[in-house]
Amino acid sequence: MDRNVVITGGSKGIGKAMVDAFLLENDKVIFTARGEADAKKVLEEKKEAVAEGRLFFLKSDVSKEDDVQKLVEFTTKKIGACDILINNAAIFHGGKVHQNSIKEFEDQFAVNVCGVFLMCKYFIPQMLEKKSGNIINISSNAGLNGGYNMSIYASTKAAVVGLTRSMAMDYTREGLRINGICPSATLTDMFLNGNDKSVIELYENNNPARRLGLPKEIADAAVFLASNQSSYISGQFLSVDGGISAWNGEACQTTR
Predict the structure, then answer these.
(1) Model pTM?
(2) What is the pLDDT of residues 172-196, one digit of tens each?
(3) Torsion angle, CA of 86/188/147/34, rounded to 10 degrees?
């Protein structure tokens, strides 16, 4: 489709799946990460797209204003104005509030909320100038409902929901569409490394689909929201979760 796509946190997990998906759409993609090791693996794996000038990487921390401004400059120089912005970068620290440190609180809000704010703040002017643009913010089902041992993380994701819906009110008339995706537990390093086997099995058993989500399934939802097939959708969140968000919490009844 030859669109210009920027994806934060694109070196692994859901972000990498999105890089793969939009390259398959024949778009130009710039992805970011705070570290370079995993990013280099992506560039090597996708060396054909790199050679074609369709894939670029910039080491960047979305919580730092200077980094975000440099990313805008880098994007403009390499591929032009951004058409699709996907705010995927996030960090997770579990625990109950009395167990969490101030640093864990500040770090999560810096990346998960301020990072989304800064990316939108500095990329939206490009979109306003051409009167078109598509922003997809990755929240979480934890941002829609409460979750055990993740109060601060859930708070950051709830903030992303409010930010997204309010931005849709401000910018849809200007030609921008702003939506979000709420994954549930997904097979990523962030989830697998942060939970032991018993917790992972509990997630699987509670889910109507009886499994965790795949990063590609989240990426497929992003491709849809970025397409003309969703042209009348703005300010919405799509839960990609195997049906778990539909559950009312009552015990599962065995059918005969």
Answers:
(1) 0.94
(2) 999 999 999 999 988 887 777 767 7
(3) -50
Q: Is 153 a catalytic residue?
A: yes
Question: What element of type H or E holds 223?
Answer: helix 215-225
Nearest to 176 by CA among 122, 132, 229: 132
Give yes or no for a contact between 125 and 175, defined as CB atoms under 8 angstroms apart.
no
Question: Using CA atoms, how far apart are residues 85 and 124, in angstroms rounded to an integer?
Answer: 9
Query: Which residues face 134 on adjacent strands?
Result: 84, 177
Q: Which superfamily does 4-244 belong to?
A: NAD(P)-binding Rossmann-like Domain (3.40.50.720)
Cβ of 249: how many Cβ atoms within 10 Å? Answer: 6
Domain range annotation of the chain: 4-244
- Phi and psi at 3, nearest 5°, equal -95, 160
Given the residues 122, 153, 171, 203, select the one marked as catalytic: 153
Question: Which two tokens mark 95?
Answer: 């625990």
